[in-house]
Design a protein that fits this description.
heterodimer; A: about 270 residues; alpha/beta; Rossmann fold; 2 domains; 4-stranded antiparallel β-sheet; 10 strands; about 40% helix; globular; B: about 290 residues; mainly alpha; MetI-like fold; disordered N terminus
């Protein structure tokens, strides 16, 4: 990659102290290194419990690496900040605020005046199809609508990088597909760097420029797949592509191998 | 392939369309179990009053031991017109409510901020918690001799006894209310750039509000209970005093009337607070 990386993980290790047994520790990550170029869409794919979310938490600044370095534009990440937006598996909207108040939370926390952030906020609300529901309470919306509000909320402050932790994992298949298309379209228009955690191979192949396959715990990057499909992508044309089945089979093979290994590690 | 013709039944109308019809905004409904069954509650109360009346009218029970509702009602009108021990009934009622409300107001105004600070500052909690936990379960009647020595037999001692019992339970409840906030919500606003103060204002405090209302409801109930203890301190007015005084003269009708008024007022306090809770914290128990 010729351009300066936006995010760089350099031989990152992370372990957690076991809560019950003193001195015993659980290794979550061992020796993870990768880079994200500006504007790149990268999916982290791996068996559940392999430490994908831990990587996001390190970049978000919620946790610190035990060894190695996590860098944003060359500077070590110490704490969470608005330059790294995040969409969680659950929408994590605040039920005491309306949909609009939730979506505009970023600029309001930064002390911006409504005149400055409202036009852009209304555009975002329209973009995610929630303009008519802006004054509703979030708990009055369906799961998919809530997650769209969470997406708009994370995107409105225009973060340099968007971290997404299985954001569509809790949605039904149809809603998930339309959310993926929506995300794809917004990303294409904004050029935000995205790191997207998933265990869904189809999702990764539809969205990503690059897929990083993770190994079982303690997790490292096992393989890197450059997704060869051009953009814009159409989910129907994609599955008809002859390369698609082959790539998916290779990835599934690795994922299943790692899943089996992680089962062997945790006999319980 | 015939599959395609079967699949494309309707033109696609964008990602929002199907959800709007299928799962669009649900009407906001409060899960109010008490509401649906209110006719049963009303019938139950009416039945109870009827049996109570019959027990007197048919001579099942000595009216001195249990005066029937008709007699309690007669006493109520009599006391309303001519008063009890030179003081009109409404004045007994109002003085008790005034004592309680002023003590509640002070307990809420001091107890909630103190409890919140204890909840977010472990050091402060470590300093104060032993005293709070020692005093809270203490029967407040045991404090009466000391309170009289400290504050005399005027209004201050009555205020203090109601205040201290509701205050302690508010402090404990407020401290607990801020600890139950989910890590996910805090992280979500952290990624939006929230400072520690903003996390408290935007997440911790609203998250605690429903529980604060519940705490106040419970504490008001506890404070109202200690009204009798407060009015045992050399009073000559108030509903609590009226009940105790009437008891020494075997005026069981006045005692029952006092008990009814005390109970109904406590019920009213709780009703008002429940309405306020629904109005100002409608997100109680809602996930988003």
């Amino acid at each position: 990659m010729s351009r300066e990386p936006r995010i760089r993980l350099d031989r990152v290790g992370k372990w957690f102290a076991a809560p019950t047994v003193a001195g015993k520790r659980t290794d979550a990550l061992s020796d993870v290194s990768f880079e994200l170029a500006p504007g790149e869409f990268v999916c982290l794919l791996g068996p559940s419990g392999c430490g994908k979310s831990t990587i996001l938490n390190l970049i978000a600044g919620f946790e610190q690496a035990s060894t190695g370095r996590v860098l944003l534009d060359g500077d070590p990440i110490r704490e969470p900040g608005p330059d790294r937006g995040m969409v969680f598996q659950q929408p994590m909207l605040l039920p005491w605020l309306s949909v609009r108040e939730n979506v505009t939370l970023g600029p309001r926390l930064a002390g911006q005046t409504p005149a400055r952030y409202l036009p852009e906020a209304e555009r975002h609300l329209r973009l995610v199809g929630l303009h008519d529901f802006a004054d509703h309470a979030p708990w009055q919306l369906s799961g998919g609508m809530r997650q769209r509000a969470a997406l708009a909320r994370a995107w409105l402050p225009n973060p340099e990088i968007l971290l997404m932790d299985e954001p569509f994992g809790a949605l039904d298949a149809q809603t998930r597909l339309s959310m993926q298309e929506l995300l794809h379209d917004i990303w294409r228009d904004t050029g935000t760097t995205i790191l997207f955690v998933t265990h869904d191979v189809d999702e990764a192949l539809f969205l990503a420029d690059r897929v990083l396959l993770m190994s079982a715990r303690p997790a490292g990057i096992r393989a890197e797949i450059i997704v060869p499909f051009g953009r814009p992508r159409d989910p129907e044309e994609l599955v008809a592509d002859t390369d698609y089945g082959r790539i998916k089979r290779d990835i599934l093979h690795c994922v299943r191998e790692e899943a089996a290994r992680s089962l062997a590690l945790d006999p319980a | 392939m015939t599959l395609e013709s079967e699949l494309t039944l309707e033109p696609y109308q964008g990602p929002a369309a199907e959800e709007r019809t299928a799962a669009g905004p649900r009407p906001s409904r409060q899960p109010s179990r008490g509401h649906r069954h209110w006719p049963i509650s009303v019938a139950s109360v009416i039945l109870f009053i009827a049996i109570w009346q019959l027990s007197g009218s048919l001579g099942w029970v000595d009216p001195l031991l249990l005066p029937p509702p008709s007699e309690v009602f007669r006493t109520a009108t009599e006391l309303a017109l001519s008063g009890y021990r030179q003081t009109p009934l409404w004045q007994h009622f109002l003085i008790s409510v005034a004592r309680a409300l002023s003590a509640f107001a002070a307990a809420i105004a001091i107890g909630i901020p103190l409890g919140l600070f204890m909840g977010i500052l472990p050091m402060l909690n470590a300093v104060l918690d032993p005293f709070v936990q020692f005093l809270r379960p203490l029967p407040k009647i045991a404090l009466i001799p000391l309170v009289v020595v400290w504050f005399g037999i005027g209004e201050t001692s009555k205020f203090f006894l109601i205040f201290i019992s509701s205050f302690l339970s508010i402090v404990v409840g407020a401290a607990a209310s801020v600890t139950g906030v989910s890590q996910g919500r805090i992280r979500a606003v952290q990624t939006l750039g929230a400072s520690r103060g903003q996390i408290f204002l935007y997440v911790v405090l609203p998250n605690a509000l429903p529980e604060l209302f519940t705490t106040v409801r419970l504490s008001v109930g506890i404070g109202w209970t200690s009204l009798i203890a407060a009015e045992m301190v050399a009073a000559n007015s108030g509903l609590g005093w009226m009940v105790i005084n009437a008891g020494t003269y075997l005026r069981t009708d006045v005692v029952l009337l006092g008990i009814l008024l005390l109970g109904l007022t406590g019920y009213l306090f709780d009703w008002v607070l429940t309405r306020l809770q629904r109005r100002f914290a409608p997100w109680a128990g809602k996930d988003a």
